[in-house]
Amino acid sequence: MDKTLKVGIGTDAFPPTTDGISNVAQNYAAEINKRLGEAVIITPKNPNQLDYKYNYEIFRYKSWWVPSKEGYSIGWPFKDELHQKIIDMNFDILHSHAPLATSYYFRRVVEKKPIPVVLTYHTKYEYDIDRRVPTKPARDFAYHFLLNNINAADEVWVTSEGTVDSLRKIGYQGDYVVMPNGCDLPKTDVSEEDIAMIKRKHNVPENMPIFLYTGRMIWYKNIELILEACSKLKSDGKVFRLIMLGFGADENAIKRRVNKLGLKDYVIWTGKILDRKEIQGYYGISDILLFPSVFDTNGLVVREAAACATPSLLVRDSCASEGIEDGKTGFLCMESSHSIAKTLASIMENKELLNFVGNNAQNEIYISWEDAVDKAFHRYHKVIEDFNSKNR
């Protein structure tokens, strides 16, 4: 067994901000503190933070608060006294989960005291840069900032092989290690009682095919393709319900699109749900998770669905589809509404096939956070050993 370590888990997003990286940071901290040593979350301040709910230390540094639906703070890690506070915590290793403000913070820290740094590159940042940054000089600055933060790490991790394409677009040419994320939902068969309760809540008739989308309500997750596919199914006389679980910047626009497509009576909106057991119930009542995103680098929701023996429909050759066998551990389609609709039409009423593929997913692609963090923790020791050898 590797010796215990003190780890600084850096993340620009932490509750009350909820997204995939926030989820990852929480699970790393929980698993390390439970079994492997001590982990401290290092993240920007948030006026709505409720850090007393966590049984581990959360160090908040200065930030700028930008009111928005998604609730992100912008870290401002430029004061020298902040850098000394991290140094005084005597970390064995720092692990950043985004090449943004907190990674820059770690760069400033290690200028004063050498500490090995791991960076996990979770998401395709070029999507946000190209979509949100209006001018070329500003975009060039953003790419340069990200690249410097990535290059400063002693080791770079990705959550899937496909993520490397995004790293190369940013300009990173170095080595990397694939370190998959885990799932914090336990393997379970959601009870018939819970399924019936949720169906009553949303007036879902018995034997009605149920599709699920869960995640941020952002257009670049290919939500438009889901809606167009459902519109095609409706035009062909198919009956179903589409559960939209989550919230996000484009939520109102997505609702308008649903209404324009005549899908108002086919779509169920749950809003923001933080209770993990409640979320598990929605996976349990669904026949299939629709996740045609080519933006996501790993797709935590695919493993969450698998925990409940719910199969996923994914775009062939996307990062989220890595390791998925079509018709065995999931379903694969092309990146088009026509392909999604065609695939759903062929399987949506085949309960035997859906159950077969869902059970295979639960047994073959599910990864617990315990196993994922054990693998990462073992790698920490290798990074520290290499760092010490190099510095000697």
What does this structure look like?
The chain is α/β, with parallel strands linked by helices and 392 residues long. It has 14 helices and 15 strands. Strands 3-2-1-6-7-8-9 form a seven-stranded parallel beta sheet, sandwiched between helices. It has a six-stranded parallel beta sheet with strand order 12-11-10-13-14-15, with helices on both faces. A two-stranded antiparallel sheet has the order 4-5. Strand 10, helix 8 and strand 11 (241-245) form a beta-alpha-beta unit. Helix 7 (192-201) crosses helix 10 (276-285) and helix 11 packs across helix 13 (351-364).
Gist?
This protein is of the alpha/beta class and 392 residues long.
Mean pLDDT value? 92
Largest sheet: spatial strand order: 3-2-1-6-7-8-9
Measured distance between first and last alpha carbons: 25 Å
Outline the biggest β-sheet.
7 strands, parallel
Give the C-alpha Rg: 21 Å
Strand content: 15-25%
Helix content: 40-55%
Q: Kindly report the oligomeric state of this protein.
A: single chain
Series of secondary-structure elements, N-terminal to C-terminal: EHEEEEHEHEHHEHEHEHEHEHEHEEHHH
The total of helices stands at 14
What is the total tally of β strands? 15
Helix/strand-derived category reads alpha/beta
Structural shape: globular
Low-confidence region ranges = none
